[in-house]
Amino acid sequence: MKCTIVTTILLGLFLAPALGVFVGQQTGQQVFPGQDVFPGQDVFPGQDVFPGRPVFPGQDNSQNPNLNQHTTVIVGTQILTIKRQLRVAVIDQRSTLRPWKSIWNYQTGVIATKVTSEGVCYISTMDRKLMPTFDALPRLAEQNKLLQVQGRPSKEVIYVIKRPILNLQSYGQEISTLCRGLTTYETYEVYGPQYTVNQGSCSRFDVLHILDLVYCRANNKA
Fold first, then answer.
1. How far apart are alpha carbons 88 and 101 in whole angstroms?
2. Structural domain spans, the chain
3. pTM for the full model?
4. What does the alpha-carbon distance between residue 207 and residue 92 come to, in Å, rounded to a whole number?
5. Which of 23, 26, 44, 165 has the fewest CB within 10 Å, making it most exposed?
6. Which uninterrupted H or E stretch holds 214?
7. 3-state class of 4 per DSSP?
8. Cβ neighbours of residue 174 under 8 Å, at least 6 residues apart?
């Protein structure tokens, strides 16, 4: 009887480190001999071993129900739609006076703005230093909605028309669909007020009271 008990204890001592290494390999956790794999925690089948762990951009986590969901924020006559899986933001200005729609693709760094009343579409490179991050955009929109912010935004991004774009396929399906059938221009960013003095040469769009997108024709300096 004593022999059986001693054998069982010894067997347990040998198996415990091995079990810890095995569990550590499965979870990615570094485990040392004698270390409790899950200190103070009872783990049951199907339970998340590390609840509340962060999900980073691009990380595949099928257990995160928010990964494929869309977020919508309504600010006045504008509707912001966040497509988390694609890392795309869509701003839709539904004013009857001057409707427009802008797509910001944070994955590719390209933005496109369609001005329905003018029958034109502008494609630009995203200025990540001036424009809000993908995660901050809905929070800022919600904040401006609650505060009922009025007046012009303090920031602006100025683009000048460079040339027409004939092939939209390289910009992805969403932007290609947005600008299809419209005169589409490639634009480049400029700095300084020289293109905004002559308001007749520029089109300005207030995006969620966060910033202005300004599109100007070249060689129209004051």
1. 13
2. 1-53, 70-216
3. 0.66
4. 9
5. 44
6. strand 211-216
7. helix
8. 86, 88, 90, 103, 105
C-alpha distances out from residue 99 to 102, 164, 165, Å? 10, 22, 22
Identify which of 127, 140, 128, 155 has the alpha carbon closest to the alpha carbon of residue 91.
140
Distance (Å, rounded) from C-alpha 139 to C-alpha 128?
Answer: 17
3-state helix, strand, coil in the chain (%, to 5): 25, 30, 45
User: Would you write out the chain's pLDDT as a tens digit for each of its 222 residues?
Assistant: 544 444 444 445 444 444 444 434 444 444 444 444 334 444 334 444 334 433 333 333 334 444 557 899 999 999 999 999 999 999 999 988 889 999 999 999 999 999 989 999 999 999 999 999 999 999 999 998 888 767 777 789 999 999 999 999 999 999 999 999 999 999 999 986 655 545 557 899 999 999 999 999 876 443
Beta-sheet strand order (sheet of 70-75): 70-75, 78-83, 88-93, 100-105, 110-115, 120-125, 183-190, 156-164, 211-216, 202-207
Where are the alpha helices (H) located in 95-155, listed in sequence order? 136-147
Going along 30-143, which residue ranges are E strands? 70-75, 78-83, 88-93, 100-105, 110-115, 120-125
Q: 19-24: long-range contacts at Cβ-Cβ below 8 A with a sequence spacing of 24 or more? A: none
